[in-house]
Amino acid sequence: MNLLKTQKSKNKIVRLVKLISHAGICSRRDAEKLINDGKITLNGEIYKDFIIRADKISKIKVNGINLKFSKIRIWIFNKSKGLVCSNKNQFKKKTIFDVLPKEVPRVVSVGRLDEDSEGLIILTNNPSLSSYLEKPNGKIHRKYLVEVVGKYDLQIIDLLSKGVSINGINYKPMVVKKIKYYENKTFLEITLFEGKNREIRKVMEHLGLKVILLKRFEYGPFKLNKVQQNKLFEINQKDVLYKLKQIGFKIESGFWKA
After folding, report:
1. Cβ-contact 224, 217 below 8 angstroms
2. How many angstroms separate the CA atoms of 169 and 164, rounded?
3. pTM for the model
4. I need a surface site. Which of 43, 92, 123, 164 has the fewest CB within 10 A?
């Protein structure tokens, strides 16, 4: 029986893009490009299949380097205004990756914030986790502190709770709490359950309000707490496992093993 089980394990077929992504090398989309560009080798020969048998995985190399699987690591980063979340230097603007300590390994960001926004950015060495957290149907909440200028009344809260349609784009209902009001300025706590591009800013503008502060402080079970601006805090492994369980993310740490 054990011999049969071992044979089945060796013959197990694994998707190569999934394998590369779980190794923390790149996203699945970028992994497809690596395969098509001939950057994957098996026993020294270019390997362009998109599936591989489990017993051959240990012989795979990506850009000449053996695959190395790491435990999932998660950092909390407190982004300041003026930084962009892209990992490419677009228009010579400074990115969050430009200010990370050199000892931080290759990471991907979760839930972008625009250049004028600040607060919580999740960083992880696992692209699959990043994709999972950003899925529109994942219903993982994001909480923001928002300061707006303009005429504000309780009808706006009621309207946002039902969802808004702007130029053919439907924005899902938001949970809005008024924190305080003074001198034509209103502070709100807004909870989103999806993350369309510049969603809060576009909806507020549609309602005649101008956003002058937008700060994310919570993303699912991950909180900003007291992390200083442009600084990192790594979550310990015990808490990582607990939080991943909270959001239903399954760690497939052994799927590549024969």
Report:
1. yes
2. 8
3. 0.82
4. 92
The C-alpha angle 45, 48, 52, rounded to 5 degrees, equals 90
Domain count, the chain: 3
Banded pLDDT at 4 (limits 50, 70, 90): very low
C-alpha 18 chain-centroid distance: 17
Q: Which amino acid, one-letter code, is at 163?
A: G
- What ranges in 167-219 are assigned the alpha helix state H? 199-206
Match 């549609």 to its residue by tokens. Answer: 206
Domain-embedded: residue 253: no
* Contact of 107 with 76, CB cutoff 8 Å: no
208 and 102 in a common domain? no
DSSP-assigned states of every residue in 26-69: S-HHHHHHHHHTT-EEETTEE---SEEEGGGGGGEEETTEE---
Secondary structure letter of residue 184 according to DSSP: T
Cβ(122)–Cβ(107) below 8 Å: no
The parent domain of residue 33 ranges over 2-66
SS3 129: helix
Rounded Cα gap, residues 212 and 130, in angstroms? 28
Catalytic residues: 114
Same domain, residue pair 120 and 27: no
pLDDT tens-digit map of 159-208: 899 999 999 999 999 999 999 988 889 999 999 998 788 999 999 999 99
Q: Phi/psi of residue 58, each to 5°?
A: -65, -15
